[in-house]
Amino acid sequence: MIKRKGAYFFGKLNRFPIVAAFSDRKLDLSFDANPQNRKKFLNRLGIDYRNLVCVKQPHKSKVVVVTGKHKGKGALGRQNAIAGFDGLITNKRNIPLAVFTADCLSIFLFCPKTKTIGLVHAGWRGTREKIVKKAISIFRQNFNSQPKDIIAAFGPAIRNCCYEVGPEFAKYFKQGLIKRDNGLFLDLIAINKNQLVSAGIERQNIVDSKICTSCQNKNFFSYRKEKNKAGRMMSVSMLK
Fold it and tell me: To which CATH superfamily is domain 2-159+190-239 assigned?
């Protein structure tokens, strides 16, 4: 990871003509926070915050294909964000995509050959519904992107060291559950990585920030630790 301008960048992604970055807890970038925070963060990245495209993130698995008509949706508030989706894909330049997290996993997707980007918000529900595989399917069907060419990157999220879940999760997931210290822990990263590989993504093309939002709560928001007091980090991607 590379940190500059108050944001974290993936070296493997940002050598391409795209922006792929996420914030930390220095700025709350949620819909309920001061909109000047969003403007400040995006200005540092050379992004016009008024063009931002956001979704309302109902913790499901629908992915929207973003076009010019979506520019600015959710940029200034929740009421104008695209409802019903947890992922975004576009091949349009200068339209920044964003998802917001505070323990859930953000997944960046980029196909250099077709110049297509995607961003996915993957909590346990979206992961159970295989949202990232659905995103890869849209890459293939809508943009003719081949999975072997796609690069994926994982933002900050709660990791298996801290993500303790109830016994009912054994019904939801056949893999990615770890029994430890008389508890059951979920590995969101491993499950989504396996889903990407099963969709045809090369393992060497999957990059992980390795940041646990719970362990590193001093630097990142964690809903598990802070409950309703938690703000939100932004993951943002844009084709230049």
Answer: CNF1/YfiH-like putative cysteine hydrolases (3.60.140.10)
